[in-house]
Design a protein that fits this description.
The chain is α+β, with helices and mostly antiparallel strands. α5 links the parallel β4 and β5. The longest helix is centred in the C-terminal third of the chain and has 15 residues.
Length: 162
């Protein structure tokens, strides 16, 4: 069942425990939008590790998990983490991650609304520099972030430890 992009503005709010399965499903769907991928993502989303991760996020004053909701359904999510640091005279950094919009609703402006919300939240939290990372293979996402004012300034690295 395909849902056309809606002109209705979604509500953006802090995530609640009841949203965890929907958030995890959005993340698991990634770039996929066909029915089989959606079913697999919804099954993965019921794994108890997601509820445990949500509890860790909720208990940390530095982490903020948000959802975009439309007609009572979670259609997008992002996480904002506030990182105090010593660089740049102690400028507070914010990191945006896990930005996901329901694949069937992409292109309807929801991502831009979420990112404007993220910038507003970061400013309200005293963030002076906002960063995000995106998989190198996601060219469309990179163009989207650049249109919003983000600059490609650094090369990122990661190391999986578990």
């Amino acid at each position: 069942m395909s849902m056309a992009p809606s002109s209705a503005v979604p509500d953006l709010r802090p995530a609640m425990a009841a949203d965890v399965a929907a958030i995890a499903a959005l993340i698991a769907m990634g770039g996929a939008a066909d029915a089989a991928d959606r079913v697999a993502a919804e099954a993965e989303a019921r794994h108890p590790a997601y509820a445990e991760a949500f509890d860790r996020i909720r208990s940390s004053a530095a982490n903020h998990l948000f959802v975009a909701e439309q007609a009572g359904r979670v259609i997008g999510t992002y996480q904002l983490t506030v990182l105090p640091g010593i660089a740049q005279r102690g400028r507070i950094r914010g990191k945006i991650e896990s930005v996901h919009v329901d694949p069937e609703l992409r292109g309807g402006g929801i991502g831009a609304i979420m990112m404007r919300h993220a910038v507003e939240q970061a400013r309200a939290l005293g963030v002076g520099l906002l960063e995000l990372s995106s998989d190198k293979r996601r060219g469309a996402a990179h163009r989207f972030y650049e249109r919003l004012g983000f600059a490609r300034s650094h090369e990122g690295f990661k190391m999986v430890l578990d």
